[in-house]
UniProtKB/TrEMBL annotation:
GO terms for molecular function: DNA-binding transcription factor activity; sequence-specific DNA binding. Signal peptide: none annotated. This is Transcriptional regulator, LysR family. GO terms for biological process: DNA-templated transcription. Keywords: DNA-binding, Transcription, Transcription regulation. It comes from the Bacteria. Transmembrane segments: none annotated. The keyword Transcription applies.
Length: 300
């Protein structure tokens, strides 16, 4: 059984949310933990707090009364513990270890984190840049950022934004070789290959309605997305690039998007942390800051 005050805190957030899943994201815990806490609280009180359906959650009349009562209890408890804290212990300090992809981290997250620590000088950031999905390293981190798909129940994850992919080339490349009219045309034209550092093999290109295509004879191969971008900008060949890298070049006309109707389903950019005990305030602050930063990234 959970601590009764913790159950009241969870209940209050659920009451302010549209459903249990939204509440779990706000709390940084799994939906199962939220469901379990509400169920235990209802059993203690002997009354239902919410009406559940497959689409949404609505609070009962008894639940509305409990919201008012729980707010005063939570406020009193917070005030009681705050009285016993000295100014020194109230200061947020300590280390926060973060792992993040190279290009995304250096270009978008590093500047935001530099501004963040100006406001929280007591927090020590320990940043590890890597495109490898290494569970051993990730298990030693407080927070991770990952691009792609996320299905690990042992982590609390927030999908901060989507990332889209485009087949792009320079206007000069299009003028010289023509624009591909179908996916099979790409293999007959100069193209760039990106090595997946996790497997050591070339990433296959994905499309909306065609099977994945493996670049068969790339004219340039690299394991670094920034180098891949430079090769495409130099007009060496076509490449499938993330919008975080190529959107501004498409806007300025330095790159041309081809086969736009074959753009694959967007991937997610996730900020995650392990589900292990209470979450330190410094970790929560950095976690929320990373989510906010990614949500507000301007591609131009």
């Amino acid at each position: 059984m959970q601590n009764q005050l913790d159950m009241l805190r969870i209940f209050k957030v659920v009451a302010e949310s549209t459903n249990f899943r939204e509440a779990s994201k706000r709390l940084g815990i799994s939906p199962q933990s939220v469901t379990r806490a509400i169920k235990e609280l209802e059993e203690l009180l002997g009354e239902p707090l919410f009406y559940r359906s497959t689409r949404n959650t609505s609070i009962t009349e008894f639940g509305k009364q409990m919201v008012l009562k729980s707010e005063s209890v939570i406020d009193q408890m917070d005030a009681l513990f705050q009285l016993n804290k000295s100014p020194e212990t109230q200061q947020i300090e300590g280390s926060v270890k973060i792992t993040m992809p190279n290009s995304l981290g250096r270009k978008y997250l590093l500047p935001a984190l530099m501004e963040f620590i100006k406001n929280y000088p007591g927090i020590q950031l320990d940043l590890r840049f890597s495109d490898l999905i290494d569970n051993v390293v990730a298990d030693q981190m407080d927070i991770g950022v990952r691009i792609g798909f996320f299905g690990e129940n042992r982590n609390v994850a927030r999908r901060a934004r989507e990332i889209k992919f485009y087949i792009v080339g320079t206007p000069e490349l299009v003028a010289k070789y023509g624009a591909p009219h179908q996916v099979s045309d790409l293999c007959q034209m100069p193209h760039i290959g990106l090595i997946d550092q996790n497997t050591g093999r070339i990433w296959p290109w994905s499309f909306a309605s065609e099977p994945d295509c493996l670049p068969t004879a790339p004219v340039f191969i690299t394991d670094d997305p920034e180098a891949e971008l430079e090769a495409v900008l130099a007009g060496i060949g076509y490449g499938q690039l993330a919008d975080l890298l190529c959107a501004k070049y498409i806007r300025t006309g330095q790159l041309v998007s081809v086969l736009p109707d074959q753009s694959p389903e967007p991937w997610g950019i996730y900020v995650y942390r392990p589900q292990r005990g209470p979450v330190a305030e410094r970790v929560r602050l950095v976690f929320d800051h990373l989510v906010e930063t990614l949500s507000n990234v301007s591609l131009y």
